[in-house]
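Replying to the earlier thread about multi-chain prediction with a worked example.

Input:
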Amino acid sequence: MNANILPRIAIVLLLALIVCCRSAHVAQIVRPAGHITLTYWSATNAQELEFANRVAAEWNAQHSEVQIKVEPVPSGQSSEEVILAAIAGQTTPDIYSNVNPAAMQDLLDADGVVQLDAYPDFFDALHGRMPPDLLNQYRSSDKHFYQVPWKSNPVMVLYNTGMLRKAGVSTLPATYSEFLAAAARVTRDRDDNGRTDQWMATIDYFPIWYKRLYDYLPLYLAATNGQSLLQGRRVMFDNESSLAVFRFLHECFARGYVPRQTFQGDVFLDGRVAAKFTGPYSISQLKRYAAADFEYDYGPIPRPDDATGQMVSFADSKSIVIFKSCQAPREAWEFIKFAISKRNDLRLLELTSQVPIRAGLLEDAEFADYFKRNPKMNKFAEQVTTARSIDSVAELKEIFDAIAQEMEASVVFDLKSPEQAVHDAARRSQQILDAE
Amino acid sequence: MMQPGEANKFSMRSKTAVGGQVLGHGKSRASSAPRTRDVASDRVGYLMVLPYILHLAVFLGYPLAFAFVLVFHRWNIYTPMKWVGLGNIKLLLTDPLIWRALVNTLYFLLIHIPLQLVIALGLAQLLNQKIRGRAFFRASYFMPVVVSGVVVTILWQQLYATETGLINLLLQRFGLPGIGWLTDRRYAMPAIAIMATWKNVGLYVVLFLVGLQAIPAELYEAAELDGASAWQKFRLITVPMINPTIMLVLVLSTIGGFSLFIEPYVMTGGGPANSTLSGILYLYKQAFFFSKMGYATTIGFFWAMIIFMVVLVQRRFVETEAV
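Result:
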């Protein structure tokens, strides 16, 4: 052994490491001829995993040459973050069914997903499911389609109707005044110890961007009949509607109808809070965990008292994509068409209480029995074609962070006026867009 | 504590060993056999430390070098890096939130460190006495140190809750108004500092106990013979003798304070109105909310530089005191 042996050993070890890693990677993508296995990442909740497993099992039984392997998306702060990390680490699955349309621009920037309208039957498959106007909401900035709009969870207000009834509220609020009036009746000190222990609603007010997708955004869309926050790269929310939303939320906090604190556990479920902003997926949770006599119903997103026209909410939709790492994208596309068939859309409703983005759900005979058995889902089915998706710009998180910061300062802690807060949020958002 | 005789023995052994090594490399020992043996021994030594060097290179050297490269780039993980020169540094210097985070952290340290020192030393002094159930109390105070930070934080969040928290309930029982511990800008950071002190004090109690038990009993006996009061013994014997431990606690608390993350992340999200935004929380948001890896690493280096400078000042202070 001479003195130069150490660098050589180090190089050999590093090369061995690299070879091992490459071998593992190659082993993952090379498949025996004539037999393809596609990995499908589903959302992690039990209901959706069950849906994915059943669909995959049915497909696998019919297609011995193309097998689907279902895995839950790895855990992380958010599924978008996990997917982007997977793209960076080249560990993406073949198919993923829970893409937030707001994150599509990131996936496109990363050159991570397959262009789906390149398949000749793309429009036939999608137009059979949704009208062209609705489909166009999911068209990317380069005018192509990279996602299959799959399901929609329009945000509404879930009420504990038993609490409302006890408080003397007989109809679900539809306007700001009605909501505040109901809140005044519901909010109280149940054990007379001088401290409020029952509230109208709870809002997670931490200044974290995605939390504003479930309060500010649906309220804004409802107040504006579905106007988007941006037009191209121009900020459009420095307006009266935004101001009305901030003022309404400010009233809720200032009058104590919404507590300035966070809770552990589900305070809606244990009857301390009468309302929360949520989607249809809460129904399956309530069926599983709520007491048998727990009464609930969904109401519209409150709007300004003088609002007219149809209420439009945030769709909170999710799409399906094929990643460019997929070695058999054509087969993956065939599986996606199978997964969004009418039969599987019904299965999605039954298993997950989530609504497929399919026009005419309430008129379709195949779904009639389901909606008859689950009348609370009708309100969501009605909104499938009207609920709005979110603006898709790469700076979306920062824009919502600006809104969250200003909303916290104004609405929650009263440190600045709603007028100033809305203006500052819009100004900051425009700066973010202009800086890129 | 090492006795004078032991120190001498150790010194002699050390000198012999060093002397032997010097002789081994001298001209009178120039024969090839020992030389080959030494070289072979060196190689074995290097081979033995190779795993550590590899570990260091892969998990510290490479990330550190990569992070330094990122300081001069814009990178969101999934698209190619873009050279921005000193853009991230300019942004840092003009970003009001990073300075806000620095002020918040210094405010946290201003409350946390004196509280930590006084409580830990006081408890250690008590637990160093011959009291009943001493082992039980020592274990009890150490318990929060081993419990998950997130769990402790969630528990304190409920204690601090404005409407339903136990602390406000107690205040109310005494006829005092409730306080927005986590929702009032004036109280949020002190509330976090109190919680962090409770969580960490057990560790520093142990350190102080070690320091207290190393003080020779003769010093106290001599002081008692001279008629010194308990306070005089504490001030003139205990404090100077545990000065290195005090400084160790100071340095560790400072580093811990600059790493403040879990508490504001779970309890306040950095609010109200950024009053509990810490440097690490801000870095986390930039990196993992907005995918601004270049700017996040710039904040990281800036923060590390500040910690380094503060600890350097403290170390100089330790050396001055120790002389």
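Confidence is low (pLDDT under 50) at residues 1-29 of chain B.

Feel free to reuse this layout for your own posts.
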